[in-house]
Here is the input.
Amino acid sequence: MKVIDVIVAVLLIVGGLNWGLVGLFQFDLVAGIFGGQGALLSRIVYILVGVSAVFQALQWKAIQRRWGLAESHS
Here is the structure.
């Protein structure tokens, strides 16, 4: 699970930085690197970032338990 968590974190950082660049400078780094928003590689990166966000959202309770943040009801 640790490898998946690291991959998800990296993809979410890439996505966040890309959105920051779009917001600040109207520059889409992913599109710039991979040949435009419609390019296959760009679309794959966008999809992987979106899947990572969904994965992270679904793992929220497990993450809280791992971090010791979940309330214990004992």
Summary: Residues 2-25 form the longest helix (24 residues). The radius of gyration is 16 Å.
